[in-house]
Every structure is written in structure tokens, then in C-alpha cells.
Amino acid sequence: MKYLGVWLAGGVTLMVILAVGIFSFLPQETPPQPAVVVPAPPTAVQLQANLAEREATYQSQINQLNQTLQERRATYQQQLQEMSLQLTAAQNQLQELKAQEQNLLVQAAQLETTRAERLAAYQAQLEQAQAQANTRHAQWQAQLNEAQTKLAEAQTQLGQ
């Protein structure tokens, strides 16, 4: 099965050669020609020389076809190997990207957890700071009120 194409190409080539050879010996239908001097029929030596020449031509064509076939086969094999390498590289890259995707999903989940924890911690710190600020504000307000009361008493005593 590996060389089926080569055998088929060789068979078709031989069929073409046989057909050309057979049809070259068939008489051709030509309209009657005016009387012309007919050359003497070729001798057996001339026929053998013609056949040898045709056979050499056909053999040359077969060799050229075989060479072209081998060149194309080599080219196709090389292209197949290159495509195979590209496919392997693409599959490797896909696996790497899948692994990166999984890592990024884990990192995103970790970052979301960290963000939520920090938000809760900042919110607690903010509430604590606001409570401290309110307590200090109340203390300062009380001290201010006490100082204003003392000032008012002092002004009242001075004004008497």
C-alpha cells in the first residue's frame, strides 16, 4: 500500500506508451493524393533503428517521470514532517497555556480572598479609629465646655 501510487503511475505510463506505440503503427486515413513518387518502404534495419529511438525516448520520459515523482515524494515528506513538528509545538503551547490558565485562576482566587480579608481588616480599623475619634472629640468637647464654663464664671466674678 505504501507504493501504490508509484505502481499506479508506472502502470498508467506503460499503458500510455503502449497506446502511443500501437497507434503509431496504424495506418492513417488521408485523402487520396495525386500521383507522387512513393519512396521505398523502410528496411528492417531502419525500422529497428526507429523503434530503438522511440524506446529510448519513452525510457527517457519514464526516467524523468520517476525522478519528478521521487522529488515530489521527498518534498511532500518534508512538508509532512514540518507540519508534524508545528502540530507538536502547537499542542505543547496549548498545554502550557492551560497550565497558565489554571495558575491564574488559583492566583485570582487567592487575590480575591486576600482582598476580602484586607477589606474586613481596614473596615475594622476604620470603625476603631472612628470610635477613638468620637471618644476624643467628646472628651475635648467636655474639656472645652468645662473651660468655657470656668471662663464664664471667672468673667462673672470679675464683672461683680
Query: SSE order in H/E notation?
Result: HH
Largest sheet, strands/sense/barrel: none
First-to-last CA distance: 130 Å
What general outline do the C-alpha atoms trace?
rod-shaped
| Secondary structure tally: strands | 0
What ranges have pLDDT less than 50 throughout 5 or more consecutive residues? none
What structural category do the secondary elements indicate? mainly alpha
Number of helices: 2
Compute the CA-based radius of gyration: 53 Å
Overall pLDDT metric? 88
Q: Give the helix proportion (percent range).
A: over 70%
Strand content: under 5%
Can you tell me about this structure?
- The chain is an all-alpha fold.
- Helices cover 86% and strands 0% of the residues.
- The chain has helices at residues 4-25, 44-159.
- α1 packs antiparallel against α2 (44-159).
- The radius of gyration is 53 Å and the shape is rod-shaped.
- The N and C termini lie far apart (130 Å).
Summarize the structure.
The chain has 160 residues and is mainly alpha-helical. It contains two helices and no strands.
